[in-house]
Amino acid sequence: MTPPVVILVRPQLAENIGMCARAMLNFGLTEMRLVAPRDGWPKKGARQASSGASIVLDTVKLFETTQDAIADLNKVYATTARERGQMKPIFAADEAATNVRTLADVDLRTGILFGPERMGLSNDDVALADALISFPVNPDFSSINLAQSVLLVGYEWWKLISGGQAPIAPTRSSPPAKREHVLAFLDYLEAQLDEAAFFNPIEKRAIMVRNMRNIWHRLEMTEQDVQTLRGAVSALVVGRRGRNASKNGS
Amino acid sequence: MTPPVVILVRPQLAENIGMCARAMLNFGLTEMRLVAPRDGWPKKGARQASSGASIVLDTVKLFETTQDAIADLNKVYATTARERGQMKPIFAADEAATNVRTLADVDLRTGILFGPERMGLSNDDVALADALISFPVNPDFSSINLAQSVLLVGYEWWKLISGGQAPIAPTRSSPPAKREHVLAFLDYLEAQLDEAAFFNPIEKRAIMVRNMRNIWHRLEMTEQDVQTLRGAVSALVVGRRGRNASKNGS
C-alpha cells in the first residue's frame, strides 16, 4: 500500500522541514519532495528537528517547480484553508485518505501539496491540483502550522490503513493520466488557441488559461482521455487546414 | 459544549507551550493548565510560537502538582505511547472525544494530561487518570511531538463537534448548464469533427461519439463553461479558416 507523497512547496525554515519529516514517519509516510526551499537543501537544522526521521530526509527529492515535482503522479491534492474560486472538489483529510487508498490499491500514486509557512500555496500551485484538502478547523483561528498540516494528513492515512476497513474500489478502464501528459495536452491546446487568436484581449490570457485549465482538471483525465481529446483538437486544426487547403489549392 | 482542558505536565520548552496553544485554538480548545513548567511561567518565546493564540496563553493556570491541576475535573485522560501495566481502559483520540462530549452534554468536565517532551508522563501521573489515550501510530517511529499530540486531541474534538466536513465549499460562479445548451455544444462540436474527418472509420462514429460525450459529461459544465468551450472550438475552426484563407488568398 503506497502512501501519498508529501510535497512541500517553497518551504522557508529547515526546522519545519525536519518537523514535517518526523510527522510523516509517525504515520508511515516516507516520500518527501521539496520545491525550491527558500534556504536551499540540504540545510542545517532539518535533521535535528526530525528527531531521527532520517529515512525521510535521506531520500528527499528536490525540484525547481511544482510542475516538475508532480510529473510522475496520477493524482494531486492541494491543502488550503481558503476557497480559491477554482471550482475544484474539496475534501476533509479523512475523505482524501480514502481516495488516496483507493488509487494506491491499483498502484496509482498521489501527491499532496503544502504551501510555504506564511502564505500557503499560490493560486498557480493550487491550479495544478485535481482537488483540495481543507481541515475542519476553528473558523476564528484557522492558520495551521505546516508540520501540523502534514501530521493531519498522515494521521488520517494511518488511521485508515491501520484500521483495516475494506475500501470500495471503482474500476477504471485506463489509469489517471500522468501530469506531464495532461500538461502537454494543455500546452498544445493553448498553442493552437494562440494561433486562432482565442485569447482576447491578450492581457487576459494568463487568467483565461488558468480558468480553462481548471475546467480540464475537473475531468481527472485518464491516459485514454488525453489521447482522445488531443486527437479531437488536432482534427479540428489539421482537418480544417486540409479542407481549406484543398478548397483553396490548385 | 465545553471542550476538554489541556494539561501540560512539566513541559520543558516555552516554544512548545506556545505551539500547543496554537494547536488548541485551531480546534476550539481554550483552557490550558501548566504543571511545574521547567523554565517557569510566563516565559519568553511562548507567545511568538503561539502565532496569535493569546486567548489561550492569557488565561493559562499554573499548578505545582498534577493532582492540584485536575482537582475540579470530573474525568481525566492521560496520553501515552506505551502501555503502563495499570489496567486502565485505552482509547484512540476519536473515541475519547466522543466520551468527552457525552460528559460535556451533562455539564461534566474532562481534562487530558500530556507529559514532558522527552520522557512522557510518569507512572504516578498516569495513575491519576481514569483512562488512557494512545494514538494509532507507526510502531517503528512512535514518538510524537508534544504540540502534535495536543493537535490530534483537538482535531478529533473539533471533527466531532463540527461534523468533520471540510470548512470550505467550492463556489460556483455560474449555474450548471441547461441540458439543451450542453447538447447543442456537443452537436456543434461533432459537426465540426465530421467536417474534419475525425470519425474514422465512419462505422465507428456512433460509439466514438458516445465515448466522447461521456468525457464531456464528466465536466458537469456550467453555462460559462459551455460558452468558453464553444468559443474555443469555434476559434480553432474559424481562426484556422481565416489564417488559411489569408495565406492562400490573393
- Specify the helix fraction band of chain A: 40-55%
Tell me the structural class of chain A.
alpha/beta
In whole angstroms, how far apart are the ends of chain A? 62 Å
Main-sheet strand order of chain A equals 3-2-1-6-4-7-5
Mean pLDDT of chain A: 90
Shape of chain A: elongated
Query: What is the strand content of chain A?
Result: 5-15%
Low-confidence sequence ranges of chain A = 164-171
Annotation field: number of helices of chain A: 10
Report the major sheet of chain A.
7 strands, parallel
- The helix/strand series of chain A, from N terminus to C terminus, equals EHEHHEHEEHEHEHHHH
Which oligomerization state do the chains in this entry correspond to? homodimer
The greatest interface between two protein chains, and residues involved on each side, is: A-B, 78 and 70 residues
* Number of E strands of chain A: 7
- Measured on Cα atoms, how large is the radius of gyration of chain A? 20 Å
